[in-house]
Amino acid sequence: MHGCSRLFPFDNGAAPNNGIEVVEQMNAGLMESGFIQQADTIEELAEKLGLPADALVATVERNNENYDNQEDPDFNKEPFRLSPVRKAPFYGIRNTGMLLATIDGININSSMQALREDGTPIEGLYVTGNDSGAFFSGTYPNLVTGLACGRTMTFGRMVAKQLAAQ
Ligand SMILES: Cc1cc2nc3c(=O)[nH]c(=O)nc-3n(C[C@H](O)[C@H](O)[C@H](O)COP(=O)(O)OP(=O)(O)OC[C@H]3O[C@@H](n4cnc5c(N)ncnc54)[C@H](O)[C@@H]3O)c2cc1C
After folding, report:
1. Who has the most CB within 10 Å: 35, 42, 72, 154?
2. Which pTM value belongs to this model?
3. Residue 20 covered by a domain
4. Angle 75-79-93 from CA coordinates, rounded to 5°
């Protein structure tokens, strides 16, 4: 995955956002630059990534155990999202987490005013974007490319227009 891309056709037959060939080209560049590392063993991969080998081996073993049990008590993933890491070559990258979008946040009304617990608006306080609540609480529909950025900018613009008109 790169950003919100998807490699495989959607359940309804719609084309993926990025074809596999695009990702292969991207990955080739990332391998040449050393961002993606390849190794025949997990220990070797850990060394190439500058990670403690014992800890990475234990993490991979735990992942495989969860896959074999078809149950993930660590991250609560549904069984169909679990996969084993057993077959060489192994690939690794050093990465970190980023906030994609929130499934919770501060509840707002249709004027983007922040709401108190009792549902009444707080005068003068407006919230848009990732801080505003529950837009993606049911699903993150990645067939609608740009939805998160789009609603963030659109709602922000609507608040600005509203304030400019006061
Ligand atoms: C990897 C990735 C891929 C994504 N791909 C897509 C995509 O393809 N399509 C899509 O629509 N959305 C995508 N998103 C989601 C989208 O980027 C976010 O939902 C959107 O940027 C949220 O906008 P925002 O203004 O709420 O927050 P942000 O863009 O996070 O803006 C918050 C700003 O506040 C600043 N800030 C934080 N604290 C303070 C402070 N104390 N004082 C002053 N400033 C502060 C931050 O520096 C930042 O500039 C992606 C997100 C990620 C992480």
Report:
1. 42
2. 0.64
3. no
4. 55
54, two tokens: 């014992």
Domain assignment present for residue 7? The answer is no
Ligand 1 nearest-atom number relative to CA 3: 3
The 10s digit of each residue's pLDDT in 112-132 is 999 999 999 999 999 999 899
Cα–Cα distance measured from residue 160 to residue 166, given in angstroms and rounded to the nearest whole number = 10
Q: Name residues contacting ligand 1 (CB within 6 A).
A: 3-4, 98, 100-101, 129-130, 146-150, 152
**pLDDT tens digits, 23-36:** 677 788 888 888 89
Distance CA 37, CA 105 (A): 37
CA-derived radius of gyration, the chain: 22
Token pair recorded at residue 56: 């990475």
Residue type, 101: A
Q: Are residues 57 and 87 in the same domain?
A: yes
